[in-house]
Amino acid sequence: MTVAAWIITIFVPILDSGNDDGPRIRITSVGETPLDPEYLSPGFIAIWLLIVGFAILPWLFGVEQWWSGSAIVLGALLLLVLAAAVINPPSLLWDGQTDDGLPTGGMEVALPDFGFAISLIGSQALGAAGFCGWIGAQRRKSGA
């Protein structure tokens, strides 16, 4: 579920300023759009690799207690990153001149878009998977 959410948010913006006429801020799970290597963010790619790695580990090695605890922590950290994006959204100040010579300008602020809700669900799914894995490991230990 978490990987699916991150795949969807490659194309569905997490944050978007919504301006169609001038400068626009659009943030996806791999960086700014358009999808061009120039706009890819190493930090976003690192988060991508971490999420995909966490999703694959249980299939390769089975769910261990360390994975469950780490998945809970990673899910919580992703939620904190999303909360930070809402509290302090990316913004852009711009200015210029019209053809008539009149000064123009504005400010763009990227606000949560539909991809934000998808990312929230994906982060919560990772935390829930970790919690369920933790409970399952505890039950196996106790023999229940």
Task: Note the main attributes of this structure.
4-stranded antiparallel sheet; alpha+beta; 144 residues; two-stranded antiparallel ribbon; 6 strands; membrane
Strand order of the largest sheet: 3-2-1-6
| Arithmetic mean of pLDDT | 85
Number of strands: 6
Q: Tell me the structural class.
A: alpha+beta
What is the domain total for the residues?
Answer: 1
Low-confidence stretches: none
Share of helical residues: 55-70%
Order of helices and strands: HEEEHHEEEH
Strand content range: 15-25%
Radius of gyration: 20 Å
Question: How does the overall form come out from the CA principal axes?
Answer: elongated
What does this structure look like?
- With 144 residues, this protein is an alpha+beta fold.
- The protein has one domain.
- The protein contains four helices and six strands; from the N terminus they run αβββααβββα.
- It has a four-stranded antiparallel beta sheet. Strands 4-5 form a two-stranded antiparallel ribbon.
- α1 runs antiparallel to α4 and α3 packs antiparallel against α4.
Structure in a nutshell:
The protein has one domain (2-142). Helix content is 57%, strand content 16%.
List the helices and strands and how they pair.
Layout: H1 2-11, E1 15-16, E2 26-28, E3 31-32, H2 42-61, H3 65-87, E4 91-97, E5 103-109, E6 111-112, H4 114-142
Helix pairs in contact: 1-4, 3-4
